[in-house]
Amino acid sequence: MRSSDTSDQSYGSNESHPEYWRSLEELAATPEFQERLHREFPRGASEWGDALQRRDFLRLMGASIALAGLGACTKQPIEKIVPYVDQPERVVPGKPLYFASATTFGGYGQGIIATSNEGRPTKIEGNPDHPASLGATTIWAQADLLDLYDPDRAKTLTNGSAGATWGDFLERLNQTLSSQAKSGGAGIRILTQTITSPTLAAQLQAIANKFPGARWHQWDPLTRDAVRAAPSAGVYGGENLYDFAKAKVVVALDSDFLYLHPAALRHARDFAKGRRVEKPGGATMSRFYAAEPTPSITGSNADHRLPVAGHAIPEIAAALAALVGAGGAGADVPASANEWVWAAAQDLRANAGASIVIAGETQPPAVHALVAQINASLGNVGATISEHAPVVANPVNQVDSLKTLVDDMRGGAVELLVILGGNPAYDAPVDLDFSAALRKVTLRLHHSLYANETSQLCHWQIPATHFLESWSDARACDGSLTVVQPLIAPLYDGVSAHELLEPFTQQPARSAYEIVRATWQRGAENAGFERQWRKILSDGVTAGGEQPPGQSAAAALRRGSAPSGNGLELLFRADPNLLDGRYANNGWLQELPHPFSKITWDNAALVSPALAQREKIENGDYVELTFRGRKLDAPIWITPGQAENTVTLHLGYGRKEAGRVGTNKGFNAYTLRTSDALWQGGGLTIKRLDRREKFATTQNHFTIEGRALYRAGTLAEFVRKPRFAAEMREVPKHDETLYHPDEFKKLGYAWAMVIDLGTCIGCNACTIACQAENNIPVVGKAQVIAGREMHWIRVDTYHAGSPNEPEFHHQPVPCMHC
User: Fold this and answer.
1) Each residue's pLDDT tens digit, 686-715
2) Candidates 3.30.2310.20, 3.40.50.150, 3.40.50.300, 3.40.228.10; correct CATH number of 239-388?
3) Each residue's pLDDT tens digit, 332-366
């Protein structure tokens, strides 16, 4: 349900052009679509025309087979772990135990409840007591379970291509540390991703104290540099906390706050509260405006969605600021945006103090500064928005940090480089040429869950433990602290980041448990700490202190500028499934249909219907993309709702060292991504090539002829006619059903399995959760093309209106078990 009617279409069926359509082929009623429509199942789904090779079966099913049985041969951690409060009174064979722990998203903690059966982790759910998850999980938290049992994980410590022992590694490391002691560690560099762990931050500080010349650098390809530069709490890296439940009007400027934000789970819950309507009397809904260049989960839920090029967002922000009285002279916005900007501004002014304006990390700092001014002038700060000091340990501009590291490596100033997690050889900006600079470092160490592209360039590859195998801690967006407690002893010879950093301080070796516990015990009263420690482990969350402030926001804002808007615009976005590529070897996520294209096992260059028509290109056609002197061949996918003169590339594919599942899938968008165009840039040209790609897309699978499967209305319609959806239900004729017409007339909903489509955002978490709970196998690209995908629940996306500016609607379709 939407708060207002955003389509000029009325109810009623039309065989040629249905009001709600799932694909452009259905809208155009192409002969191919009609042929598929008249078949009960997709061609090939019911026939077995090819033999499944044993090698392919084992490649796809390796982690699932391990999840089903191999974990039973492992043992629990040596240290005492504390079950969550709703576990059975005693361990009973066949009965699960529940443990509070945490996973991280972008470095930020998200509380989880992990289920253990006979010492083997079998399921992950959200911790209802954790403020960042509130009992919910992302698709990545659900899929993390498959990574735990992945046989492609790094298993043993290696030196080059040869196996080595921990003693061998320590001997080589101590030689380098001894030589660096004379210069205060001037040749030591440590590269990490975004960190909120108090324990890891304390260890890095201890290393800095012992080696004052050492430097800590940070790089995350999905960096939030622009967001950190916004003036929140008056310091660089400050955090804004949004309460969407209190907001009557929300305006999102290229922000996917319901899906790709560190607090997305909480945002989704709060957003649903503002949208949920149960009774017609006095019913109200928040109104949501979104402006974005490419469809996102968040934008697809907007009442008023504006497809607009990324470089036009700063102009829209400036215009909004002027119209709501936040200062500035305004700006000229695209003609197609005038009505949207005016309506959004009027709604914001009418709901001052009960609204939210939010910008995404893909926009430059100047946009975030304008958004902060708008929220302040409307009185939203302190009402729907609260400002907090930094949560991230040592917030820095990560692009600048990586550039400094590359310059030092290239200049020969780095003798020892320790890379904790990540894969910069694959995902660093192409203009920095990180790999070439890395080769000039005397001693290179890489600590990661998988041996990847970066590992291939390092002398030592140290296998990392999974978060379900080792102790750690993390902060959520609001500063809440969570202890990450393991459920199982390491399956392989991995070590945690905490254990890897211990030798740098040349203190007696400690386990990860001892290191984390010591951090939490610091400053606590010894008499009551044990009781407090057990409660923290049991509850899974505790209030946390603030990190020390970073540099001033005003200084950081000078670094950003709006992206150029010349020619076609190239957009880089996190893949909705694989993110930056870290989940490339996860079969569940590879086979999960993308939210809008429903493509599996591939990425594509997303273009608008208008651009495709102008360039005379069709789905699957390869084009040559030329951007700032670099070229990349990519197949295209025509995407309703894409801004006209834009092309979107999803990151995370084209991996060369990902594992048996993820290697050589799709194309590598990082080969065009530069440090000054991390998210978007102008000047792109495209040229059609004479070859095609056959995508494995589920977009038109299970299409049914002549049935209105999706029903929607506006708030006004619901108030006027609360049962409008029920009246649209098809009632079979008496001779078309074996059921007695009165048999189920008085039965209501049962089993609490009603899905509120008004609050479903289309995130696909239910699909992966079902796959994890039932260990549903993946079938691979060829079998998806044949229509043999095995998901027990899918999320259909319907459109209404013009293909260039459609509405989006999501509808989960569960199997009959649910």
Assistant:
1) 999 999 999 999 876 566 555 566 677 777
2) 3.40.228.10
3) 888 889 999 999 999 999 999 999 999 999 999 99
